[in-house]
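Human: I hope this is not a bother. Would you mind checking the protein record under this note? Thank you for your patience.
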Amino acid sequence: MPVIDFVTDEENLTMTVTAEFAAPVERVWAAYSDPRQLERFWGPPGWPATFTTWEHTPGGKAQYTMSGPRGEKSTGTWEFLAIDAPHRFEVLDAFANEDGTPMEGFPSMRMTFEFTPAGDSTRMSSTTYFDSLEALEQTVAMGAIEGTKMAMAQIDAVLQDLRDYAQGKGTRVELLDDTHVRITRLIDGPRDLVWRAHHDPDLVRQWMLGPDGWEMTECIAATEVGQSYRNSWAPVGDTPGEPFGFEGEVLLFDAPRRAVTTERMQGMPVETLNDLNLYEEDGATLVTVLIEYPDKETRDMILATGMADGMEASYARLESAVLTPER
């Protein structure tokens, strides 16, 4: 976890986060000064950021929008007050409407970012300055501390080459909190093909089978917001087990990058929220699935079924049976 300290100072009206990254100062600076890299970790999981304006010079402006899994939007702006590459920059951060105008009733905040060497790593200190105690308390109450920690936990995948970060490590499961789990798997293939493999029924049937001895008996795809999907499986021959399936609805569909769906086991009321994101680098695609469970008990029950093992078997089949012939 990059964040090593988080301090709110009500007397001086500041909030300071300290983090340490396993990369040199120049590499960390590059991540914070390139909007395509920055947007991969600026928003917390489930709320990825997209920078639509980027004028990286003193007096310049940046605008970004974070998109929630149910279509929610949160827009912010930066005004760059000072830039001293690769050691420090300062911005005026503000909540904004979609057109970039300041949002009434929300505070603007001056933020400084400082980067210093720490052996082979980089120590970052980011301080936010508030105009009033009310503004500080409002920001904390909105989940700034938790959101910042979860957002910055994504930066390791940005600072390393994608293959160095994930290749050969299989399907990884991270417990983010009591109700959120992040699953990642590097697929050796381009994003467009991986996206099609997730949404073309003819391709889905070739790999989304789970452990050996099972077959997919039903695959109804959904590729538009509001559509419903349905997938079913059954054991083959003497393989033990009972047929089962999942179904749900599409909440967000942004090909070939992101799809958010609800998911519930057929005949069961318990529902999860599945947020699929695909990121490509050097011909490989990082598949990230953020799952939101209704409670900790449901999370633990589902993970205990061996879900991750089944996903790994399917992803391995995706690479060998689908992507290799396609290429």
Notes: The two ends are 37 Å apart (CA to CA). Residues 41 and 154 are 5 Å apart (CA to CA). The chain has two domains: 3-156, 163-326. The chain has a mean pLDDT of 92.
